[in-house]
Description:
Elements: H1 2-14, E1 21-24, H2 29-36, E2 43-48, H3 63-76, E3 84-91, H4 101-118, E4 122-125, H5 141-161, E5 169-172, H6 194-211, H7 214-217, E6 220-224, E7 230-231, E8 236-237, H8 245-252, E9 257-260, H9 268-276, E10 279-284, H10 286-306, H11 315-325, H12 338-347, H13 360-375, H14 380-386, H15 388-395, H16 403-421
Parallel strand pairs: 1-2, 1-10, 2-3, 3-4, 4-5, 5-6, 6-9, 9-10
Antiparallel strand pairs: 7-8
Amino acid sequence: MTNLLLDDIVQAQKRGETxxxxxxxxxxxxxxxxxxxxxxxxxxxxxxxxxxxxFGGYTRMRPADFVAYxxxxxxENGYPAEKILLGGDHLGPNVWQNEPEASAMPxxxxxxxxxxxxxYRKIHxxxxxKLGDDGDGPLDVAVSARRAARLARVAEETAARLGRNHQxxxxxxxxxPVPGGATEHEEGVAVTAVADVxxxxxxTREAFRLEGVDAAWERVVxxxxxxxxxxxxxxxxxxxxxxxxxxxRFIASRPFVYEAHSTDYQTPxxxxxxxxxxxxILKVGPGLTFAFREAVFALAMMEKELLPKAEQSxxxxxxxxxxxxxxxxxxxxxxxxxxxxxxxxxxxxxxxxRYYWPEAAVQQAFDxxxxxxxxxxxxxxxxxxxxxxxxxxxxxGQLSAMPRALILNKMxxxxxxxxxxx
Length: 422
């Protein structure tokens, strides 16, 4: 059962097994389709407080909407819905951090209440951000823990009313890379200190006790820390096992594993080592939509070689027009002159372009691209030029040269790398 999946992984880790699970952090239908067609025994799919909340988030979906969306995709792709574990990421007052605690925390409570009621079973409690009336200086760990415990109580009460609080599993801690990647070039990031992890665990355990949710503490399965991985516009910081050795030794004797955020673009060897070092939950999101973008751009370049200009989809140009007209998703994340910004909008590892695929004009161009290349056979020579890995599979009879298959295969290669690591 999916609610026991995380328990099994923790227990396997404590037996010394190199076992983990990828966490697909994306609402993109093609990413989810690729995951559901991957053949994985189970899927962990997560949404964040910014993506999905009681006000719709940037996906315009509330928690119940997202659950229905996932179940609909599962049915369409022949994947058993009962094998999907849904997780809520960074559940807390992050969306309302400019408000005082008196108004931000009730909204965070409703957020958690809605997630649990909708059927999410993996709950990451994150109250690490300062609120509008928290004053100067860093937020006290005890304050963060108290707020997290308050949300745990809401989650437990909601699940109890539905007769399923035993199904909830919790993740605590919040020392993570910047969501979506760094906004500045970095040469390195500080790995979380063991003393800080110990303090997070001890203070949060006591906060749970004071809130009267000791039973919930027994279902905490993971702690979020910074293992030293990060990515930004043009760089990826690789995992260094030596730098995280103390963290790895510390958690080995505790009843938890680590959850690693921003593992996108790590090498297969690094992902395998992360799982070996007890970073058993590997988050990936932009790395998958980046692969989708690569495939779409490759197809667009083939289209330009095959069709007259008037018949082309112009999807790359359409994306640029839409991103310039609606810059909120990229403007504060990218730095540089106009030429540099134009390059980053297309090719950045941060992949802020992922927010624009649902736009009507982009969808229309995308549909035309698929139609154009479905009606005309793609020459092997163009496949070799623009999608060489897929070309080899097509030559070997392992893959269709149809555009939909090529796109899904590009993402499947990323997912397969994570499955092998886990």
